[in-house]
């Protein structure tokens, strides 16, 4: 049975563009009524409306953000996403210095040109005990991981904190926690829900590619070759110029497409990637998709598609549901990997199913079935 306890106290690891869109969205939808639901797939989810989310803690490593209220930090550089709500009231949560580890590399650092990270050096980094104490003191229900792609150690650090503090963990990035048997088991044993990994945006490159791949399959068209090229100008794309950081991202994004049908493509016939950093695009992400196949009689066909989205609101539209599902899972005493939510919302869940099935399973979960 549903037993919502409001508000949902949310802590953020990383106050970048995706966090900005989420926090703006909470303010935007809190100011409006039920008739202003554009952009949401659920107004009420598990007894929670967007206004029931409250940001109570945040960590970042950029000197322009540390020490500021989250409501101001989200508008600091190098954030560059669309401002769709400029009247975000003070949250009372001041951004704390985060644990650096591999959440930052020289590659993303630079000059004060507003595009790169500026490490808040001189600030004391927190220990696990420090983070756990904050999570406990603030009564955090859900910890959301928004670290840069490639932050393996830093993600593991915060996942450990969530486990110790018994706080639900929502992993928006391609580091395998919710989809890793070992980690998921630890969350289960600790009685803590985990949703992950790697957020699948509202109408993003992955879901469009998956749905079209499924369409080819269901209509009897053999997919021979495909690519998904993505360009953007935010720090995510800047960070991903460092190919070393891309390993799990490539696996996550490629597998999201490969897993749709039983007929896997040879690796040489599928290319899915972040492709280039184009500074002037800022948070605009453009995806170029090509699919080549054979239809009736083996006659060739091809499809070309160009998708242009503001990346971070596209992510926040899903994050706002992931957080509410994590809290609903907690309310129901569920723990470990929350499969219906992970499958519907993530590129790399532990279990992949076609998106229409995932949608039905998610709705059943939300109804409490
Ligand atoms: O468009 P897709 O393939 O769903 O990917 C979306 C998300 O992918 C994540 O890996 C990025 O860090 C997010 O910023 C982005 O929103």
Automatic annotation (TrEMBL):
Q: What is this protein called?
A: Inositol-3-phosphate synthase
Q: Which family does it belong to?
A: Belongs to the myo-inositol 1-phosphate synthase family.
Going by the entry's taxonomy, the superkingdom of the source organism is recorded as: Bacteria
List residues of the Myo-inositol-1-phosphate synthase GAPDH-like domain: 204-312
- Which BP terms does GO give this entry? inositol biosynthetic process; phospholipid biosynthetic process
Native source species? Sphingomonas piscis
| GO MF annotation: an example | inositol-3-phosphate synthase activity
Q: Which Pfam families match?
A: Inos-1-P_synth
